Each structure stands twice: as C-alpha cells, then as structure tokens.
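Tokens in:
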C-alpha cells in the first residue's frame, strides 16, 4: 500500500511538472529531463510511469478533461435557473484555468493537438453551453427571438477569446471580467421575468479573486512547477 501511494504521488508530481513545462515552453520544447527534475524524481522514475513525452501530455490532457467535465456535469445537474447555471459554470471554469496549471496546460495541448487529440475539450465545452441554453429555452428563460444556437455561438466566441487572452494575462480570468461580459449579454438573452434575477457575478461564493494568481510564467520555473518540485522532493 505504501509503494502504491508513493507511485500515485510520483505520477501526480510528474503530471504537474509536465503541465508547467508545457505551459511555459509548449509541447515541442518541453523536455523530459526538466519534467522529471521538476517533479524531483529520476528519468527512470518518469519512464516507469510514462513511455514517452506523448504519454505524459496525454495524462495532462486527461486530468484537465476530468476537471472540466466535472464542472460541466455539475452545471447540468441543478434544478435552478439554467441561465444562472450557465453564468456560474463560466466563472467556475475561469477559476479552474487560473488556479490549476494542469487544466491550463491540458486545454492548450488539446487545442494544439500535441497529444494525438483523442478528445476535443472545446467540443465538450460547446455541448455544455448549448445544453444549458437549450434547457433555458425549454424553461422559458430566454427572451423572445433568442435561440440557443445563435446565443451559444456568442457565448462560445467570448469565452474562448477570454481563455486565449488569459494565456498572457490572467486578469482576463478575474471575476470582474466575466461579470462585465454577462452584464452586457444577460439583458439581451434573459426573458423579462428574469430581469435582475440572474447574477452576472455568479451565484457561488468565491473565497478569493482568481486574478491573484498572477501572470503566466515565461522563465521555465513558474510557481506551480516549483510546487511540483517540492512535492517531488518528498518522494525520493
């Protein structure tokens, strides 16, 4: 059991270290030696868990996909206002992107197709948005003439643009940025009976503003990588 726990911790440390390298340098320039060093383990330990760099990248994508899918499932499982849940899930995903380097790196890898692209995270996000808008239409939450298809295209374009811009400046993921977006969109989307009822800042309490995570690191040693390295030291 102790060996199994150690193996799990080592694998997680490698995934986080790899995510830091992929985000800082991209897939092509990220090296296995730096990934293992960032996790505080030997190259042999890395190859015990992963056959090659593509396998490491796929593991990063898998971890990111699980986190994003959990957010989508939670948004679809509620009984309240579908439009509010749509607003909430955009804020939740923004917090994930800001706080979790694995989610950021996994989405970037998936878009670049670096790991063979066995999944399409953008398509899954599109289905999440369109599903919530279709539910909002069924519930009578959309204004007259507003369709899930056209509205979904606008929401997807806006959220994808924010995600891309945030690669250089995490301020784009801050709660006020998404709040401003929804303050503009909701008066056009929501049925009159919902005027003022949907909170553009999200209905979920947030302990801290995600803008505090700072800019994207460019020096090859972002804080998340340092954390992975510290975690890896305990595994030796």
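Residues out:
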């Amino acid at each position: 059991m102790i060996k199994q726990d150690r193996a799990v911790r080592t694998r997680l440390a490698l995934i986080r270290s790899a995510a830091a390298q992929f985000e800082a340098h991209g897939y092509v320039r990220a090296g296995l030696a730096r990934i293992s060093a960032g996790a505080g383990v030997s190259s042999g330990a890395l190859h015990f868990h992963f056959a090659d760099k593509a396998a490491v990248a796929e593991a990063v994508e898998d971890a990111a996909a699980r986190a994003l899918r959990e957010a989508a499932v939670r948004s679809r499982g509620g009984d309240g206002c579908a439009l509010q849940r749509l607003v909430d899930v955009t804020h939740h995903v923004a917090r994930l992107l800001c706080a979790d380097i694995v989610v950021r790196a996994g989405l970037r890898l998936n878009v670049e197709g670096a790991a063979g692209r066995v999944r399409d995270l953008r398509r899954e996000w599109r289905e999440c948005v369109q599903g919530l808008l279709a539910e909002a239409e069924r519930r009578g939450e959309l204004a007259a003439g507003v369709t899930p298809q056209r509205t979904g295209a606008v929401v997807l374009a806006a959220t994808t643009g924010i995600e891309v811009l945030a690669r250089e400046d995490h301020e784009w993921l801050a709660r006020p940025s998404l709040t401003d977006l929804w303050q503009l969109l909701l008066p056009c989307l929501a049925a009159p009976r919902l005027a003022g009822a949907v909170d553009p800042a999200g209905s979920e309490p947030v302990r801290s503003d995600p803008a505090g995570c700072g800019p994207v690191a460019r020096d090859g040693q972002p804080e998340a990588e340092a954390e992975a390295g510290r975690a890896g030291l305990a595994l030796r």
